[in-house]
Design brief:
Number of helices: 5
Largest sheet: 6 strands, mixed
Helix content: 10-25%
CATH topology of the largest domain: Lysozyme-like
Order of helices and strands: EEEEEEEHEHHHEEHEEEEEEEE
Radius of gyration: 21 Å
CATH architecture of the largest domain: 3-Layer(aba) Sandwich
């Protein structure tokens, strides 16, 4: 299942910047309404997912909205996760009971919202290098019943349990991690990769493309590293011209400016863009 992110990014009401992006926190909106804005005091999240599964990105990943703090009221539970290092996702929800109380057991998520959130978590993990153990409920960070359906874990209506959600997110993560590489497709680098001038063989390692020989546009996408090497930056999107598998199992992709070892020892360094 493929999803997309609708860009509604704005600096308005963002209280702070410099997010270290080490954790992902999953929330519920806590109301039966839908929206994707930050409050005037800076409270909110980076992403909002509506009941139909539409994903909205409200602020840059560098933003630090007030999302997982104690607010002078809740007790800190997690030793390291804070507003300053956490990307937050708000899931819109429904309630068949008392929507003024998080303790009501009749809060629920639609399947569409959960599928979209699981996909988004996997995508963020891929892009930011966040391990599965750092995907948390708001409840795991402070003692707040949020997201209520995943704290009660009673599978009311269409809600999954938190364990089921994490399992689904892992399935998306593994699927994204292993794209079927082929000529003509576009891939996004999951890490910095040095550009090589060919494919390494059993008897000879491929050389490196020289930074100073790249075009001006190519240089903008690269880091200039030691010995005049060019290293494509993480997040760069490139088009695959051809794919070949080397003697040691490494999968190489040819791009306009050279070759990239895209899969090394089974680990994918690119994902489908």
């Amino acid at each position: 299942m493929t999803h997309k992110i609708t860009n509604v990014i704005s600096n308005r009401n963002v209280p702070c910047w410099g997010n270290q992006k080490k954790y992902i926190a999953v929330h519920y909106l806590g109301t039966t309404g839908q929206g994707y804005d930050l409050a005037p005091d800076g409270c909110g999240a980076h992403f909002y997912i509506f009941r139909d599964g539409t994903i909205y990105q409200r602020c840059s990943l560098d933003a630090v909205p007030w999302a997982v703090g104690t607010a002078g009221y809740y007790r800190q539970k997690h030793p390291y996760a804070r507003n300053s290092n956490t990307i937050s996702i708000e899931m819109c929800c429904g309630c068949d009971g008392d929507s003024t109380s998080a303790e009501d057991k009749r809060w629920y998520f639609t399947t569409e919202t959960q599928e979209a959130c699981a996909w988004l978590v996997a995508r963020l993990r891929q892009e930011l290098g966040i391990p599965a153990g750092n995907v948390l409920r708001h409840y795991d960070i402070v003692n707040k019943t949020c997201p209520a359906p995943y704290v009660h874990n009673n599978k009311y209506r269409t809600s999954w349990t938190w364990t089921e959600f994490k399992k689904r997110a892992e399935e998306y993560y593994n699927a994204e991690k292993k794209p079927k590489l082929k000529a003509g497709m576009k891939v996004k680098l999951a890490q910095d990769i040095a550009i090589r001038d060919g494919v390494s063989t059993k008897f000879q390692q491929a050389g490196y493309v020289k930074y100073t020989e790249l075009s001006i546009s190519a240089k903008k996408k690269c880091k200039h590293i030691a010995r005049n090497k060019a290293k494509l930056k993480k997040g760069t999107v490139v088009e695959v011209r051809s794919v070949t598998k080397a003697w040691d199992g490494t999968i190489w992709v040819q791009i306009k400016s050279g070759w990239l070892p895209a899969v090394v020892k089974g680990a994918y360094r690119v994902r489908e863009a």
